[in-house]
Amino acid sequence: MAQSKSSTEGRHAGNLPLEGGRLCLDFVNTLDWRGAPQPVELLRGYADLLVWAVHAGLLESEAAAGLQEDAALRPDRARDVLRRAVTLREALHRLLRTAGVGEPASAADRAVLNAELASPAGAWQLVPGAGGWHWQGADDLAGVLRPIAWSAAELLASPERLRVKACGDATCGWLFLDASRNGTRRWCSMAGCGNRAKARRHYRRQRAGAGIGTGSPAETGADA
Asked: Contact at 8 Å (CB) between 112 and 91?
C-alpha cells in the first residue's frame, strides 16, 4: 500500500498538518515518515524553516520576509542555523519520546536543548494580531529556535510529558500530546494514519474471507 497521511504528494513545510498539540512536537514532526527506510526531510533549507514557522503561527509573514532577506546576505550563517535547527529537532524527538515512556534522557540531548535556551537570540515579545497572539522582534537568524526550545522545556517540566506518544503507525513516527480523557489516542490523526490502518484491516479481512494468505506484516502493512 502506498504510504499517505492524507496524501504525502505536494507536502512541504508550509502545509504540514499540525497534529502534535504543542509547538515543539509539531517541529519534531518536520521529519516526515521518520520510521520509514527513507524519511522525508521537510527542512531542506533555511527558507523552509521560516515557512514552517509562519505556518505554525510562530512568525508573522513580514518578520519571516525580513529574516529571509538577512539570510540571503548571510548564507553561511543561514546554513549554520539550519544545522542547529535539525540538531535541536532530533534531540527534542529523543527527549520527548523517552519522557513519554518514562525513560531517562540523554545528557547530550539535554545539552543541546539547554544550549538553545541559553543562547542569545534577539529580543522576542508576544503581541496581539488578527489571528491571535504571535511572536515578534527576533532580529537574529537563529531567533526562531528559542520559542521552540521554550515549548519543549515547558512540556518536559510538566506532568504532560507522560502524555507524549508516537503514532501507532511505526513508519509514521510522528509525536503528539494525547489529550484524550482516557489516554487512548493512538494515531497522529484519524484522517491519516487511523484511516490507513482501517483500510489495511479491511483489506486483510477481504483476503482472509477469500482464502488468500495475508503474507508477512511487511507485505500487508500490518499495524505496529
From this structure: yes
pLDDT at residue 119, as a whole number: 79
Task: Output DSSP code: residue 29.
Answer: T
Vertex 8 angle, CA 41 and 215, to 5°? 105
pLDDT exceeds cutoff 90 at 96: yes
- Tell me which residue of 54, 74, 30, 35 sits closest to 224, measured CA to CA: 35
Q: How far apart are CA 208 and CA 203, in angstroms?
A: 9
Band the pLDDT of 86: cuts 50, 70, 90.
very high
CA distances from 95 to 43, 156, 166, 174, 214 (A): 20, 8, 13, 14, 37
Nearest CA among 37, 38, 97, 40 for reference residue 218: 37
Q: Which residues contact 199 (CB under 8 A, 6 or more apart)?
A: 1
Closest CA to 19 of 2, 1, 32, 36: 32
pLDDT at 11: 85
pTM of the model: 0.80
Q: Identify the bridge partners of residue 48 per DSSP, sorted by sequence position.
A: none
pLDDT-derived band of residue 193, with 50, 70 and 90 as boundaries? confident
Hey, what amino acid is at 192? G
Beta-strand (E) ranges in 49-170? 125-129, 132-136, 164-166
The 8-class DSSP code of residue 194 comes to I
Interior/surface letters 45-57, b for 16+ CB within 10 angstroms, e for the rest = ebbbbbbbbbbbb
